[in-house]
Each structure stands twice: as C-alpha cells, then as structure tokens.
Amino acid sequence: MRINQPIKYFLVLSSILLSACATGPTGTTNALPEPGEGVQQSTSENQPNSLSRDLIYNTLTSEIAAQRGQNSLAFEHALQAARESRDESAAERATGLGLQANRPDSALTAAKLWVDISPSSLKAHQIAAILYIRKKNLSDAIQHLQQVVKIANSKGQSGHLQAAAIAEKSGAPDQALIIMQQLVEEESSDPKALYALALTANHAKQRDLALDYINQSLSLNPKSTQSLVLKTHTLIAMGKQSEGLAFMKQAVDDSPDNVQLGKAYARTLLELNQPEAALDTFEKLHTLAPDDDDIVFSLGIIHLQLEQLEQAKSHLEKLVDKRQKRNEANYYLGMIAEEEDEPEKALAWYSQVEGKNLADAQVRIAKILADQGNLNQARETLQRLRINQSQNQVKFYIIEAELLREALQFEAAHKVYSKALDLFQDNTDLLYARGLNAADLKRVDLLENDLRKILTAQPKHADALNALGYTLADQTDRLEEAKQYIQQALSLKPDSPAILDSMGWVEYRMGNLESALEFLNKAAELSPDAEIASHLGEVLWQMGQQQRALKVWKAANQREPNNRFINQVMSRLGADI
C-alpha cells in the first residue's frame, strides 16, 4: 500500500519522538510546543542526521495546528519544515495549507519552493500557474504552463488540454484565450495544441476564430475524432445546424468503423431532439460493436423516450444480465414497469438500484407505496432518505408533504412543512409549498404570511405573486388586489399556463366572462392540466355553452382519472356527463 508522502513523513517523525520520550514522563497540554520543549534528543543510532529538532518541531506543530483547524499557523510551520527539509511532499503540504488558509500569496510562495525542489513535478507547475493566473500575472503563469505542456506530453498526456483547463481557472474566458494564444505558437504544427486553442476560443464564444483553429488542426490530422466533433459543435453553435450535421455525417460515412465518432454523432442528434435519427445511428453501431454497453444502454433509453417499451426492456435487461450499468438499467426498468401499470415489478426493480440513482429510485418507491395506500411506509422511506442523504433534506420534506397532499391530508402536510422550516428557516421552496398547502386548508392568513415573506426577499418571484393573487381571487372578495398580483406575475411570465389560468379566474370572479374565456382558452392550449380544464368548463357553462363545457370536463377526466377538480366543479354546478 502506498502511503501519502506528507503522512509518511509525519509517521517517521512521530516514531522518533515516541522513542525519544519513552524514558520520560508523559503529559498532555493544549498549547503548541516551543522549539526544544518536550522533545528529547534521541540516542538511536538510526536517526537521520537531517531530522533536526527545529524540523521535527515545525512538522509536528504544523500537523497539530492543521488538526485544530488553525490553517494559517499550520502553514507557517509547514513552510519552515519544507524549507529546511527540501522535501517535495513537505512543500506540497505547505502549498495545500496555504490554500486552505485562503492565503493565495503564501500558497504561491510554497508552490515556488515546491517547483524549486522538484522542477519536473507536473502538479507543482499546475498549481503555480493557477495561482499566478489568479494574481493576473500572465507572463509567469505562461512560463509554468509551458512546463505543464512539456511534462504532460512527456508522460503521454495532452499537455495543451491541461494548460487550457488551467487557463480557464481565471474565470474569464477571454483572458483564458489570450493565455492560450501566447502559449501556442502562431504557426503551430501540433494538431492537439490547435484543438486546445479552438476549445478555448469556443468557451470565449469566439466561434469564427475557433472554426479557424479547428480547421488548422484538421488539416494536420484529418481523422481526429475530437476535432471532427468540435468542428460540428462549433458550426451548430454558430447557428449552422444543417451544415454541422452534414459535416459530421460525412465524417461518419468516411470512417464507418470509427465507433467513437458514430457515438458522438448519435448523441449530437439526441441533443438536437432527433431521437429517431439517433436510434438509427445507434442500431448501426450496435451491429458494428454488439458488446459495447454504452450503445446498448443508449438504445434502451431512446426506445423508452419513443415509448417503445418492449424494445427498451430488451436492451436494458441485457445490461442487467451482463451486470453492466445495472443501477441505471434497474432504474429505467422500474419506470417502464410503472408505465405498464405493474407496481410490484417496479418496486422490485427500484429496490435493486444503488449509486447515483438511489435517491430517485427510493422516491419512486415511496410514491408507489403511497398510491397503494401504504402512506406510513412511504413516509418512512423518505425519512430514511433524509438521514442518509442529509444534503437533500429539503427536497425529501417537500416530497413527503406532497404525498400527504395527494392523499388530501393537508393538516399533516402542513406539519411536515413546518417541521422542515424549523430546520431551514425562510427557505423559499418550503415557504412556497406551505403557502400553497395553506390555500387547500382555506387558511388565507397562513398563505399570505408565507408568500409575503418570499416577496419581501424576491419581489419578482412570479410564482409567489401568482399563488397569492389566485388564492385571493378564489377565496376572498379582494379581487382588485388579486388582479394586480396576477398582472405582475403575467408580466414576468407571459406564457405561463398557470398564470393565464389565474388571470382567467380572476376575470371570471369579477364577472368579465369574455375576457375570462380568452385567458382560459390560452391556458388550456398550453397545458392539459385538469384544474385549468375545470375553470374553462365552468366559464363555458355560465356562458350557456354547456355541451362544450361537458366535452372539456370529460376529456380532462380521461387524461387524469383521479384528479380532484372536475367532479367537484360538476357537482357544484349540477352538471352531469
């Protein structure tokens, strides 16, 4: 087992100190030791001459300070230890502590020492270059980047790509481009260098320049997959989508055995929302490389996107059988089982998911359990997620409350939101969700309190404006005030079906039926939502268009059989399908 060098160095020193102190009394103290205090001279014949008392003191003091979170003090002693020992790992440790202490100038001092001790260290030059870039000292940064290129290339890595990535640490794409232009010779004959330059120009949105560089790179290496792909994406970014796709298709036709290029082409088609063309390309690649798991997975996902469930299952189950990409495959097989109304199969698939899809799978499990009436078990699933993935607690609180809302348990949902807000005070998502729930509780006072908190901090929060306006229009007589809020929301999101629906509803409540119908028709065109349909049907009914109203309601019930809006409004109006 390889031991990290700073730790290894510390262990050596610790063993020497332990042997030195073995014959004397031991004690504990919260104070850091001073040079010569608490450190006895070892009489061991094996003690290296280089381990002076000051070196031991500085190293141990640095480590103790670092453990206590005293990064500045730790840095000072680590730097002294590195200067005395001339040890590469000690210099690296000092550089890291300088960064942890948020002392970039100090870190640069240590990095320069590191480079001096180990001139061929790739990492040392990388960090030094980054620190010089942050100081906007481009000339010194470029000197280190030149070494990065040289050393990385000697190791068989792409030095210019590493340099480009470092240049972009400046956070200013235009400056990164200037750095790379100075680093790469004007008449460069290195296609990889020109590729890196084109990539940086693209990030700086200098598309014409990027295209020029990539064409130079391709003139030197016409078969470079990465350059062919970059030219395609550059053309597409320039608004030349057809030209870009035609170029890449020709490249694929010219190199039909280039599987990586074929994959890139298929993925580009997917990005451009052409799943059928992407599917055709992946199927050809599958014939060429039947054991390529990425291709099999892509075929499964595209078939799923196209709602070709049997074909999707076939490909995804192959991956499960091969024990490849199993977590992803299990997750999507669970989705397919849900789509086919087979909840038990879905639960079985989801229960096998681990890794990055685990949380999403567990949320799906909770939803299925809730739909089956096992609401307590569903909530326990989400509560476990809150413990195991505490960084997403807010998300899981909201999902738990939403399951309660779907079960019409609005009081219980309010308690969940309130518990979460005790932990995450003034969280906008929680306030908004609790506000909406308050509307279902017919507690306009609670809704106003939560939504006004949001609007105080974010006056242009369109959804909060809309929710406040709609609820006032629906549950109070404050119609003019409600309309003002909804108008503000609509000015921020003019194509939002939810806000158009609210505007239609407030117009209806004010007796403006024609205007209400206009807004609700627009909302219904944009969204098949059952609540919008319930409002549209009610306005039509009141305008004497009962048959059209019944048709709207019937269609909504067919789309969402379990919605809680249509039957309610029909019952209130005495309508019957």
Q: Low-confidence stretches at least 5 residues in length (pLDDT < 50)?
A: 1-49
Q: Between the first and last Cα atoms, what is the distance in angstroms?
A: 75 Å
- The secondary structure category is mainly alpha
Helix content: over 70%
Work out the radius of gyration.
33 Å
Shape by Cα distribution: globular
Task: Indicate the mean pLDDT.
Answer: 90
**Number of DSSP strand runs:** 0
Tally of individual helices = 32
Q: How much of the residues is beta strand, in percent?
A: under 5%
For the largest beta-sheet, the strand count, sense and barrel status come to: none
Explained architecture:
This protein is mainly alpha-helical and 577 residues long. Helix content is 74%, strand content 0%. The chain has helices spanning 5-20, 53-67, 71-85, 88-100, 104-117, 122-134, 138-154, 159-167, 173-183, 191-203, 207-220, 225-237, 241-254, 259-271, 275-288, 293-305, 309-322, 326-339, 343-350, 358-371, 375-388, 393-406, 410-423, 428-440, 444-457, 462-475, 479-492, 497-509, 513-526, 530-542, 546-559, 566-573. The longest helix is centred in the N-terminal third of the chain and has 17 residues, at 138-154. The chain is globular. The protein starts with a helix and ends with a helix.
